[in-house]
Amino acid sequence: MKPIISTAGKSTQLRYRRGLPTHTPNHLTASLRYELPHRVYGSKIYPVPAPNGSTIILYGQDTGVGILWRGGRPLKKTAPAPQQPPKPPAKVNGTRNDVIMIDDSDDDEPPKADPQPPPEAEFEDEEEELDPDYPYPSIVQHLRLPLNTEVLHIAVPQLPVVSALRPADSIPPIFSKKIVCTVACADYSILVITLPLSPPSDAAKASPFSAKSPYGAEILRISAHAGHQSIARGITMTWTGRAEPTPSRKELDDDMAEDEDDDTAATPGRQGTGEEGWDLLVASHSAELGGLLKIWRFKLADTTVNVPSPMSAYKTLTLRKPASRVAFSSAQYPRPRHSQLLITDSSGIARIYDPFAPSSRKRRTNGANTGSGNFAALFKTTFDNTKSDSPTPPLLVARKPILDAAWAADGHQIVALLADGEWGVWDVDRSGPSPPSDPASFSLRGFVGTFEKDRSGNGLSSPKSRSSRGSLVPMTPNTRRTKEEVLFHGTSHTSTPYHGGVSIASSPSTDGGASEDSVIIWYGSEVFRIPNLAKFWSRTASASNGASLPAAGPSLVQGLPLLGETITSIEQFKTTAEEAKMATPRDLLTTAEHRLIIFASRTEPLGRDLNAVFAKEQAEEQDGKQADQALLARGELDLGGMDRLLEDMEGSGSGSRSMVLGNSRKVLFASSTA
């Protein structure tokens, strides 16, 4: 199938139908759009690549889970089986003496043969050669795992990169052989799914060898009677050791100072149980009973997840309000904070719960939950500033709701997005460059979004509210009316919460220091990027002390072809060491309602003859300027052309440049220095 090519300026779009991608290169980036025939609720990038080098993408859909294997060594193309000639029909009336035998032994049926396992996939010896005009990996295999229900949320474990400091035997072996993910479905169930890490062959995809276990998948179902009585609103997972070490001396001293108790025994989760192995932790939350959180703990074998009998939750917590986000810490085992759970809600409160921490003295005294589990920290958002002439009663004042939050800096920090577009960083252990006086408040904060909002109280403003071309904007009746409304009536305030989220991807530092966190914040239909959170925070702290110029805010990611659909999730692909040194932005996986969008950076070189490339770009730019001047002379230049001419005048910095119409008479705008 040939693509439909449409060009607009310097960007080119290739639109494919029936699930094939759309190619939209724009200078250094391109958008690959995969149109899907069903609704998509979210997607995740599996942290471990397939044996052939493919990146695995999981997404939840109307009927189950979709799996994509992108890049790597492609599958070998097998020749179709030769067709055998049809057998001649048997003669009925002929020279043969046909004997009809009647066998009335209906009970003696031959045993059915066991279904043969599907053939293993074979791959090419080398990865596919990328087209210079299309230098992006293709989809090696696409699989749809049927579950007969909508998959609303999907979670994958966080796994460290195998290195000399982190050998392979310090990670559960199942993660190197199987895809392990957890999904929350519309039928109130929670499913733990294991699937082979290698993509199946086309023959195995065409004929799954078992109806109960299609494509070799094993599904552990937590039904409603053992789980939630309503649809789960979120899910997260991590892994831990079955025989965890006892708490450190510092933890015991802190516990004794708080409890004033001589009982220094380790908690059940952190005491030596004598067993060796790994466990899987799964946490989900729902709105039942005003807010319910359940944590399950399953034993991990080499290739399977063992199911306890009878099945019951490891921990059950009743929350004050329904949670809006639940996420395990980004720290890895065996660090003590690896099991910490972030719980946020719409009332502007964020808590950190550790299921393995010693219970507090008050809870022990009351006799409630004498085992492990305790809240380790609490954070709060600022109050919502509603613009009103009359004072608001204190009982009606509410904190800003939390849309989403994610762990950063190996579990030392939390990045949160609020309903009004404010984002901030909570410093959990106050290790950042500018710890606040109130530990429960933001250490770093800013705003995203395009709407104008009154933020005079905190001195912050929206990025789009500060225009750098105010002196060149023409005064029309429309703009005059808008300025008058803002000047005399102020900006309107809306309490409608926006849709947004936070995505954080960590990578080891190039200089051997702390990990580098790439932050993506999406708010409504806009996406913002912070390439390195630690450097951004340091520059902001230096600017606040007067040591340097103010740091630029999060950069806006432009060119996402959403086509009017709502963003449901954004994930970040892994980056290489060379790309990290060159500060190349990470590729993004954006999930809309009916499409997957991969926002990728161009990886092909500019060419051997750089002078020819630059000369070609300059020639194209000059041709565009001449075309705009010709349209202006004929009076046919549109608003887009006017904007290009104004940008050219502003960028040139020349006081003698102006737009002319047929002769030397200046029209529209002239520079004040002319």
Automatic annotation (TrEMBL):
Region of interest: Disordered: 70-134, 239-276, 453-481
UniProt biased composition (Acidic residues): 121-132, 253-264
Family matches, as InterPro entries: WD40/YVTN_repeat-like_dom_sf, WD40_repeat_dom_sf
Bias-annotated ranges (Low complexity): 457-472
Protein name: Uncharacterized protein
Organism: Massariosphaeria phaeospora
